[in-house]
Amino acid sequence: MIPNVLTVAGSDSGGGAGIQADLKTMLALGVHGMSVITAVTAQNSLGVQGAWELPVEAVRAQYRSVVDDIGVQAVKTGMLASAELVEAVAELIGGTDAPAVVDPVGVSKHGDSLLAASALASVRTKLLPVATVATPNLDEVAQLTGVHVDSEEQLREAAAAVLAYGPRWVLIKGGHLTGDAVDLLTDGSAEHWLRAPRHDNRHTHGTGCTLASAIASGLAKGLAVPEAVTAAKEYVTGAIEAGFALGGGIGPVDHGWRFRDGA
């Protein structure tokens, strides 16, 4: 049986992030991807021109339709937009017997807000406590905890601040720092430092969505959290290296890089 992975996220009309990136990642990694669309965005390589969230009842109906019939081996969340959506999705995940990867999406690659300020408390108190792995970048760490990271040494402080909200594991993504791309995965006890060379490529749209979906794919296959995250980091590093120009702004990572490399 092919493992089933469900993404609960927003649609990116440009195809580089969101639901579209999630499903491409899942296909590339050999799992069956399914989707619950929480919002529709008008989005391209230059930014987000508009966003419209779906009603909570539509999100809940999509989720129940998939989980009750098909079943899931892992769930991944992305853009949830509002407090109402965050709380509804947290309740749904809490009632699902499958690991959950929470990407607490706050802003787009272009700096556009994708989460209402009023939803932050719900992310902290409702969504993070049901996460198997939370994957915030440094901007999202600051948004959620007030901890501002300027150096690799501060990643531990950031991780502790996010773990205080209840996820089992947290992956603090240090991609916004200088030097190697360094991430810290920890459950508050074990630490796993993940390093990769920083590629000279500005076409990195969709990295966060892709990484979280890759982790969920690994968990669905039965990998332990450290192994799933390590494999996901390797996949995303290759996708960044192969990222390509699209439109007039920031292009996407290449989700199909392994197919083209023949790997």
Automatic annotation (TrEMBL):
Superkingdom of origin: Bacteria
One Pfam family here: Phos_pyr_kin
Pathway as given in its UniProt record: Cofactor biosynthesis; thiamine diphosphate biosynthesis; 4-amino-2-methyl-5-diphosphomethylpyrimidine from 5-amino-1-(5-phospho-D-ribosyl)imidazole: step 3/3
Domain Pyridoxamine kinase/Phosphomethylpyrimidine kinase intervals: 12-254
Principal EC category: transferase
Function: Catalyzes the phosphorylation of hydroxymethylpyrimidine phosphate (HMP-P) to HMP-PP, and of HMP to HMP-P.
PANTHER family found in the cross-reference section: HYDROXYMETHYLPYRIMIDINE_PHOSPHOMETHYLPYRIMIDINE KINASE THI20-RELATED (PTHR20858:SF17), PHOSPHOMETHYLPYRIMIDINE KINASE (PTHR20858)
NCBIfam families associated with the record: HMP-P_kinase
Name of this chain's protein: Bifunctional hydroxymethylpyrimidine kinase/phosphomethylpyrimidine kinase
Native source organism of the sequence: Streptomyces coerulescens
